[in-house]
Amino acid sequence: MYAKCGVVVKAQQVLNELPVKNVVTWNALIEGYAQYGQGDGAMNCFKQMKKEGLTPDVVTFLSLLKACGNTKSIDMGKQIHNEIMGRDLLEENIALGNALVAMYTKCGVVDKAQQVLEELPTRDVVGWSTLITGYTQQGRGHEALKCAERMRSEGLSSDIVTYICILKVCGKTKDLEKGTEIHNQILNRGFIGKDVMLGNALVDMYAKCGMLARAEEMLN
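Request: output the structure for the sequence above.
Response:
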């Protein structure tokens, strides 16, 4: 409760006073530190938990990776990655794999994020969308489009986040043909009118490709 309310110092005090601590109580505190961008606090809790003989679980690592991504603590993120690999936890938990991809992406190491994603035993739309977003934010449109094609080749359908990123790339590169293809996919999926950011991305794509009449029609 204290951690979720942002009073992480009080949460730590309560935890310290407990006669018995377990992984659940430590996870609650670690998540609190992660949520409020205090990566050092999250990492210190992790070390203290291990010192007390408790074994971190998947929830622990998810929170720690979130903290590393939010604070761009790449060195800490690599330590956590090594811990996860040592425990062989990626074989059965796709959310943990996606969290690693997100951590490396937020730290700006998108090539490493792609390496991690490609080595996962199972991939889903969340992981690919995270990677596509990372490449788009770095202005690497070609790589973003290649990832989108890879995702489709694996039988996965794009989600709204992915479509917004791809449309942004099409607008920057003035690739009207690809942009129109994506528009048709969006129509077929019934996504038009369901997300204002997606509609804005379509208008922006057509405008940047010089199709102002089409952009106005789309806006209307």
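The chain is about 75% helix and 0% strand.
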